[in-house]
């Protein structure tokens, strides 16, 4: 997945690429995603991309097969760079525990920071803790609190697993990767690719500037509608966040029973 020295007595870097572990000089200078999306080597497309398609298919099969028996789950996103004693990590640990106590598995990107805190909270509360890792040229590998871990080569395969097996997204403070997951989730709900899917932002002080911009610029300029703002819910209250998810599940179950 990522370069890491965790558990390596010689301090050598280590990268997990799917089922393969690479160390020292065997670590390539680029990732599988980078090679797939590289437009500067067009001559290789006919000779290599067909094989890559089979590898992509195998990642989907691995993910579907591994996660099919999960209980209801919630995907939790946030920065890998957050310090363990930061407010967002403390909030993530409390959230992971509360979700586990409510009967939900917790799915994260499997890394450190907020992800590790959410996994730890779920595991310590007796819940199921899932980590979906990705091959990157930096940061650490799967954290020690993950019960079920899958390392992916391709971001788009991993993103499918985050959505397919989750009843909701909870997004804590994070960087570009967190923003990517946030706006993809909102887009899927807005376009009705997924329905009755809560998207909850936790850390109102962190997200308020972005939310104000969405209202003051996107809405004011007609790029989104008033109802689109209802797709996002902000709170700092862990119990409120979990209740939003529970209520959405109950509403979905009620609608299905009447269908």
Automatic annotation (TrEMBL):
The keyword rRNA processing does not apply. Its EC number is 3.2.2.n1. It catalyses: 9-ribosyl-trans-zeatin 5'-phosphate + H2O = trans-zeatin + D-ribose 5-phosphate; N(6)-(dimethylallyl)adenosine 5'-phosphate + H2O = N(6)-dimethylallyladenine + D-ribose 5-phosphate. Keywords: Cytokinin biosynthesis, Hydrolase. Residues 1-35 are annotated as: Disordered. It comes from the Bacteria. NCBIfam families: Rossman fold protein, TIGR00730 family. Belongs to the LOG family. This is Cytokinin riboside 5'-monophosphate phosphoribohydrolase. It comes from Paractinoplanes pyxinae.
């Amino acid at each position: 997945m990522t370069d890491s020295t965790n558990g390596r007595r010689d301090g050598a870097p280590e990268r997990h690429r799917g089922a393969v572990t690479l160390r020292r000089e065997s670590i390539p200078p680029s990732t599988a995603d980078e090679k797939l999306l590289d437009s500067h080597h067009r001559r290789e497309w006919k000779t290599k991309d067909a094989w890559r398609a089979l590898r992509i298919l195998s990642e989907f099969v691995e993910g579907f097969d591994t996660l099919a028996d999960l209980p209801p789950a919630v995907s939790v996103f946030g920065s890998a760079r957050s310090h363990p004693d930061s407010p967002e990590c403390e909030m993530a640990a409390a959230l992971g525990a509360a979700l586990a106590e409510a009967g939900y598995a917790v799915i994260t990107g499997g890394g450190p920071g907020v992800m590790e805190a959410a996994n730890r909270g779920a595991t310590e509360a007796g819940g199921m803790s899932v980590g979906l890792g990705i091959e990157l040229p930096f940061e650490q590998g799967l954290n020690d609190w993950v019960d079920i871990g899958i390392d992916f080569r391709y971001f788009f395969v991993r993103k499918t697993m985050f959505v397919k097996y989750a009843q909701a997204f909870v997004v804590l403070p994070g960087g570009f990767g967190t923003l990517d997951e946030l706006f993809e989730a909102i887009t899927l709900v807005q376009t009705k690719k997924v329905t009755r899917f809560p998207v909850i932002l936790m850390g109102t002080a962190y997200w308020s500037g972005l939310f104000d911009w969405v209202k003051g610029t996107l809405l004011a300029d007609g790029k989104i509608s008033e109802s689109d703002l209802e797709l996002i819910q902000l709170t700092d209250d862990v119990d409120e966040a979990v209740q939003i998810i529970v209520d959405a599940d109950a509403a979905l179950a009620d609608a299905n029973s009447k269908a």
